[in-house]
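Hey,
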Amino acid sequence: MKRKRLYYKPILAGITEQDRDALLKGGYSKDEVDFMIEWEEERQAWELYEASEEGKAERRLADQMNSEQKKRELAAWMQDPINNPEPIPF
């Protein structure tokens, strides 16, 4: 029996029944095919969200909060480097 590849192969979210059947005949299980389709749909939805204004604003906020957290860790470490863990490098 031919060994199937277990790494992720990109497929389109708009997969047809013929494509699905071909994957099943190619050695993938029904669960693997369903997982690949779900994975791709979520990836595409996430890309659309990140490209939206709301996604960009959320990313800027997360970056700002992360930067502020690193600054607090660095300030605490500089005040007492022995008792505070080393800060996460920028």
